[in-house]
């Protein structure tokens, strides 16, 4: 049987067997496979964080000390992939990211995976782990965060405050609760 037909049959079997919550084949390409919406350099300019429609944050060693490739392009090495909760269609896409001036926290925001509202996740960049989700808990009857997709983020100089703006124009201020990196309090910003 020709290899092309075998590959087609294998793809047909894999696609037809994926239903509901069953495991499915996922291709990891060690880099962006879709539009990039946010970029941030580490404080030492050695790492580049990028996120977008591929629904993950790729962390690159930008290799300033490496010689250019044969074609003259700068070389970068994938060193980590940061993942957050994703779902079908736009749910889970990343619209913005920002690195705290301290370099230890990376905020990532976009469209929520569960309710298609605005979701923010704060990562610990030393361990490449999720520190907190903002809002910490979603309650349909209580306003605790954005109701539409988050499109912009900015950390304060101390790195303990984060402002976020959503597609509907709302701005929220998130404050870390003391030394507990996983406890944040959000407040809707309104004109006085």
Short description:
This protein is mainly beta.
Can you characterise this structure?
The protein has one helix and twelve strands. The strands form three sheets. Strands 1-2-3-4 form a four-stranded antiparallel beta sheet, with no helix packed on it. It has a four-stranded antiparallel beta sheet with strand order 5-6-7-8, with no helix packed on it. It has a single domain, classed as YVTN repeat-like/Quinoprotein amine dehydrogenase (Methylamine Dehydrogenase, Chain H, 7 Propeller). The chain is globular and about 55 Å long. 8% of the residues lie in helices and 42% in strands. 30% of the residues are buried. With 192 residues, the chain is mainly β. Residues 1-18 have low confidence and may be disordered.
What is this structure's SSE topology?
Blueprint: H1 3-17, E1 36-41, E2 47-52, E3 56-61, E4 77-83, E5 94-99, E6 105-111, E7 118-124, E8 129-134, E9 150-155, E10 161-166, E11 171-177, E12 180-189
Antiparallel strand pairs: 1-2, 2-3, 3-4, 5-6, 6-7, 7-8, 9-10, 10-11, 11-12
What labels would you give this structure?
Methylamine Dehydrogenase, Chain H; four-stranded antiparallel beta sheet; disordered N terminus
